[in-house]
# Entry
Amino acid sequence: MKLSIRDLDLKGKTVFIRVDFNVPLAPGGQEITSDKRIRASLPTIQYALEQGAGLILASHLGRPKGKPNPEMSLKPVAARLSELLGRPVKMAPDCIGPEVAALRPAPGEILLLENLRFHKEEEANDPEFSKQLASLADVYVNDAFGTAHRAHASTVGMIQYMPQAAAGLLMDKELEYLTKVTKNPPRPCVAILGGAKVSDKIEVIQNLMKFVDRLLIGGAMAYTFLKAKGEPVGKSLVEDDKLELAKELMAQAGEKLMLPVDHVVASEIKEGAETSTVSQIPDDKMGLDIGEKTVAMYSEIIATAKSVIWNGPMGVFEVPPFDRGTVAIAKAVAQANVLSVVGGGDSEKAIKAAGVSQQISHISTGGGASLEFLAGIELPGVAALTDKLA
Ligand code: AMP
# Structure
């Protein structure tokens, strides 16, 4: 267990909070198109303010490649955060240096540092840069789960120069749910994996099959497995160089691993394309979604589960009608009323489209980080935090 912000005495302290303010911006960099990530950080920010701390908030935004770029400034974020909190948020001209140090916030004040990645030393996890970041504050809190799989100066390097490093409330919630479903999950535990490629999720599949009771496969990934089994896949997306690996994975997983039994096929990926549902994919068609029989079969298994882990869409979710299978699975997970942890942007969108967000226990904010967690890989940004004494 890692130290939580709740374990810290923050009164009168300056707390450095690594947040995830990597928000989408409209071209030009002035307008925030979704403030979801800013909102997700509010509980930790509000908690630290209530405890009497002065706050230094730090984040990266986009890929400025180690150089200042006004189109990736965090200034619009300071403005939006100030609106959401109903109090001023001071914007620092940079993230390190004497000018920034002189802006040290008093209790109740908030200083937002400029984009960490304006310095190449951030991603290089440079010790000198780390020391400079650490010198700005008394305590360290990481609430940026989405970057916890990266060993950068603000997520790992600076921690060794801080007396204490704790998880923020959002980070805490992510770790709590991901740990619950991966260590001794309520059984039966069912994992649902979809998306484009087997190659992206090999380690996830290998790790999940160690402890889940069922592994339901959907998305294009299924066609690499089906082809490896000798089934016709037509013109479906297949990773031909992963057929041997797919065979090995199926042999290791045995009956746990389930593949679609029918498919929605079409000649092209186009909105409103002519489709049919088949159990054998014709040579000239592509499998673009799981069929009704598969939806029914998977839904029945999900209904008997006590915990569900889901990552990745069951079909070409972005293009209707190939979103149906994914939305149906979202509904099945919601109806099962189980401990459910969902990661990945498409699965989250399907849950929103199905209107069932409230029935999902936890929707992860970090796609890459949650996949690495499910793969059993220790996240460097989590490992670096202070251990909680038992
Ligand atoms: P991932 O990022 O690995 O979760 O993959 C998501 C992508 O997989 C989405 O863009 C989907 O359109 C794509 N995808 C899912 N199923 C299929 C399919 N049957 N054929 C082609 N692409 C698919």
